[in-house]
Amino acid sequence: MAVDNDVYNTHSWWHDDQPFATLEAFTPARFDYFHEVLTNRLRLDLAGLRVLDVGCGGGLLAELYAKAGCKVTGMDPSGPSLEAARAHAAESGLEIEYQQGFAEKLPFPDGTFDVVYCCDTLEHVTSVDQAVAEAVRVLKPGGYYLYDTINRTFRSKLAMIKMAQDWKSVSFAPKDLHDWKSFIKPAELHEVFRRHGLANQDLIGFASKRPQLELLKAMRSRARGEITYGELGRRFQLGVHKDTSVIYAGYARKAAN
User: Fold this and answer.
1) What would the DSSP string read from start to end of 22-35?
2) 200 with 252: CB under 8 angstroms?
3) Can you tell me the distance from the alpha carbon of 92 to that of 76, in angstroms, rounded to the nearest whole number?
4) Which SS3 state, helix, strand or coil, does residue 169 take?
5) Pairing assessment for the beta strands 198-208 and 139-150 based on DSSP bridges
6) pLDDT tens profile 39-75
7) Are 70 and 24 in contact (CB under 8 A)?
8) Among 79, 111, 121, which Cα is nearest to 98's?
9) Is 220 helix (H, G, I), strand (E, B) or coil?
10) How far apart are CA 106 and CA 96, in angstroms?
11) Is residue 170 within 8 Å of residue 220, measured between CB atoms?
């Protein structure tokens, strides 16, 4: 596949001057939305809730779920990413189980988890259908699947491929991190859900709260080395938005049988 997933073996996760530090823009926005869903809409008690993070990377989201009281298992194919996740969790005094594996073949028994979430991962797998099927398999009946991914639109090609990866004057992501052809439209993803017994419950977008010109200036500053990747991520100020043309998210429920 055109996506270079080996970048997750070569870049640091918890350093402000490394490319993955831009995820600081996405992580709080993702967690705030999912936390609101779990606590306010679904009225779930997070204490002891068994949660699986599919494609956990260096553990950015996993740590937030753990701090909220969830019993978190993080899974990722990248050994170096898992090493970074374990080390940072230990430094932070968090108990998170990390295990190596692939979204298309999860190393867990049926019905293990109350919640499975898959963020910034579906656009990297070899089979979206199989990744969703496996998530449903390890979910308990009535459990919830939380997700975000990238839409396949002209705007996403401009923002996530051309500006983020290709154009050196503004780029901030590793080259070949994403392949536009691997992006998935919401209707396509929700059809996969239906095939595997998931009923989608919500659809929202994530977008910056800042003016476009300010974002462009920040990206140019990062490309010139004037600010760090982490500072760029913080300047994005992403939040929930009605625009789903680039990044979108939601949650779905497995039938209770």
Assistant:
1) GGGGTHHHHHHHHH
2) yes
3) 20
4) coil
5) unpaired
6) 999 999 999 999 999 999 999 999 999 999 999 999 9
7) no
8) 79
9) helix
10) 17
11) yes
